Amino acid sequence: MSKVLVGHRIRPEQAHARAGFLTANASPTEPGIRTPIHRAKVQSILATAVLLLANTATPAQKATRTFFNVLLPTGADPWVYKHTDGTYYTTVTTGSDITLRRSATLSGLGGGEKRIIWSPPARGPDSQNLWAPELHYLHRKWYLYFAADDGRNENHRMFVLENDSPDPFQGRFTSKGMICAPRANRWAIDGTVLNLGDKLYFIWSGWEGAANDRQNLYIAPLANPYTLGGPRVEISRPTLPWETIGSPHVNEGPQVVVKGQTINLVYSAGGSWTDDYCLGLLTAGVGSDPLSPSSWKKQNRPAFRSGGDVFGPGHASFVTSPDGREDWIVFHAARFPGSGWTRSVRAQPFTWNSDGTPSFGDPAPPNTPIPLPGGEPPHDRYEAEHQKLAGTARSAKHSRASQGEKVGFLDSPESSVEFSVEVPQAGKYLLAVRFANGTAKGRTASHGISVNGVGSGSIEYPNSGWDNWSNAFRAVDLRMGTNAIRFSKQDGFAELDCLDLVPAK
């Protein structure tokens, strides 16, 4: 397991002096300002001073149509599905259960409503190591595909759950059992569905035999959403130099996106535990036979790889923005260089080439905000350094912070940052807190939260190192007008950069 990178914390000599505030305490009875003329002069002087401060100070709040690109501070194998009503659903690997999240916005998935929709039995073939769940809506029912085993990795297989409720948060997901190839019941993970007109196909990553020497991609027809209707067919194996980094060689995480007459099968390649993990691309024509290996053509170069301080991007899924005008890729990446399977979930828009293949470009730099998905409401952004600091908390310059400044030294029990926020109406709001945590030994940090003086639980910050900013999410109830949201020292150590506030639907 990779060692967590722990950077330096804010040193006292780095903290700059906070600006003082001009105050005036005068009454009509004080000498020298008894007359309206004198009052007018004082008011004029104060107004000029306020104007000068306003022109030189960075505002504590601003409306923005950007966000910092972390959807979840921890998680792997993200699957995002946009339903016909516009709701986004997402799953990630938890290992021990299947948790479903939903949100009206893509950028708000990290703080969306969540529920454990299935817990495995105490023992059996699907009792342990639950990986890469995917939620699909097929034939007016919900189907959940996931990999699991009995505690032994060589026994990993694909399984299916079914729920006939219109709302996947309601009803019950019941097991439809294992989904496996006839006469080839081999190790299998990362299953997904290709829906072509009235035909369904199942695509997954698996071993050719019983040995863990290589992961290939296989496809088979589906007789129904939980039963294969024919033998498996190999459509890809790792052969190119960027596919064969690490051992065993890996092709996994297949995902499908169709554009015009082109079927794009995006997959992950290279050692998933390395910074060289990346995305590859197979294509086939919509009119071709997807069960024929000759229908699939592999690109010689990675379609998406490390860059811009983002390492090991992989296991992608694809959705459109709320307004339906933009295409977005959602993927996991290492939280910091060399972190291996310690990951966060990111998203960014992509475009299309003239031949119907996706153009992902490079990973968006993590310290530069990107435009919100089209159709999402703007965020109100509050900079931590302009808020009320208590205890040992203080601000310091930092090149990767939102406005070049952060707040750290929340070291003592009385240390806190209190944000003063304004909302037009009472209701539930989503907080997106940009933080850094480099607590020793890779420990998770946390802050207690209070809203208008009333305790509101806590918020956790997964460890990514001091200089690797991420987002943590929390929904809170606010009253109309001004609200005080206080973050107080709890477990470990964390620094704060800024807070994005948006109504939670």
In short:
By secondary structure, the chain is mainly β.
Structure description:
The structure is a single chain. The chain has 505 residues and is mostly beta strands. The chain is 4% helix and 47% strand. It contains one helix and 35 strands. It has one helix at residues 36-56; strands at residues 61-64, 66-67, 79-82, 88-91, 98-103, 113-118, 128-138, 141-149, 157-163, 174-178, 188-196, 199-206, 214-224, 227-228, 233-236, 249-259, 262-269, 278-285, 297-298, 311-320, 327-334, 343-352, 358-359, 370-371, 379-383, 388-390, 394-397, 405-408, 416-423, 427-437, 445-451, 454-461, 465-478, 481-489, 495-503. The strands form eight sheets. Strands 11, 12, 13, 14, 15, 16, 17, 18 and 19 form a nine-stranded mixed β-sheet that branches. Strand 4 and strand 5 (98-103) form a beta hairpin.
The structure class reads mainly beta
What percent of the residues sit in helical stretches (DSSP H or I)? Answer: under 10%
Coarse morphology:
globular
**Mean pLDDT reading:** 89
User: Rg from C-alpha positions?
Assistant: 26 Å
Architecture of the largest domain, CATH level 2?
5 Propeller
Biggest sheet architecture? 9 strands, mixed
CATH superfamily of the largest domain: Glycosyl hydrolase domain, family 43
For the secondary structure, the number of strands is 35
Question: Given the structure, what is the number of helices?
Answer: 1
Q: Kindly report the oligomeric state of this protein.
A: single chain
Please give the domain count.
3
Enumerate the spans where pLDDT stays under 50 for 5 or more consecutive residues. 1-58
